[in-house]
Amino acid sequence: MSxxxxxxxxxxxxxxxxxxxxLPVFLTAYGKRVLLVDIDPxxxxxxxxGIKPRELSVSVYEAILGQVNPRDIIKKTPFLAFDIMPTSHxxxxxxxxxxxxxxxxxxxxxxxxxxxxxxxxxxxxxxxSLGLLTLNALIAADEVLIPVQCEYLALEGLGQxxxxxxxxxxxxxxxxxxxxxxxxxxxxxxxxxxxxxxxxRRTFPGYVFDTVIPRVVALSESPVTGKxxxxxxxxxxxxxxxxxxxxxxxxxx
Length: 253
Known about the structure:
Layout: E1 3-7, H1 16-29, E2 34-38, H2 44-48, H3 60-64, E3 75-76, E4 82-85, H4 94-97, H5 107-113, E5 121-125, H6 132-140, E6 143-149, H7 154-171, E7 177-186, H8 191-203, E8 208-214, H9 217-225, H10 229-232, H11 237-251
Parallel strand pairs: 1-5, 1-6, 2-4, 2-5, 6-7, 7-8
Antiparallel strand pairs: 3-4
Helix pairs in contact: 1-11, 5-6
C-alpha cells in the first residue's frame, strides 16, 4: 500500500526541497518505488532533478486542472524506481483557477489516486505557504513530514503547522498523521543549533526524528548541477543523514 507524504512548512528556506529530491534515492536503496510530486510553483524540485520547467509541455498544473491523464506527466529520473511528477511555473496560476472549481481542495488527491498503485512512497514538495496548493497536498497525504531549520523561529512555525493539520482533519474529514519534524541545516558546533534541537525535542516529544540533516555546502550546490547529493558529493555527511532518515521513515510505516 502506498504511503503519501507531504513535505511541508509554511516557512521558506527550511530545506523542504533538499529532503524532497534526496530522500527518494535512499528509499529506493531499501527497495521502495518512489514518486516525487512537485507542487511548488517555484519548481525547485523539478529543476534540481535536471528538468527545465519552462520546457515542459505538460506538468502537474495540467493534471490538477483535469486536462491530462496523470500518468502522462510522470518522468523517469536517473535512479531506478524513482520517478517525478514535475511542475512548470504556470502552476502559480492554479491558486486563482482552483478557487471556483468543484472539490478544489481534493484536486491533487484525485491525481495521485490515479497513480498511487505503482509506488510504495509518494513524496509531495509543498510551497512555503498555506494556500490552496499546500492544502491540496495535505489533503492528498496520509502523513506530513515537517522540515525545521535550526533557528529561533522554528518552534513557532512547527506549532502553527501542527495546528493547521488538526483543523484539516476536523473540518475536512481527513486523518493526516504527523510523521514528524526533521531538523535541517544543523551545525553541531553552533550553540543555537544545539539549543533549538533540545527545545524541539522537549516541546514536541515523540514528533522529532533522531536523524538531523547537517548544514553542508555540497547540499546547497547540488541543485545547481541538477544532481542529488549522492551523485554530486557521495562522501558528504548529508548522504549518511538521508540514508538514516529513509530508514527511520520506513520503520515508522
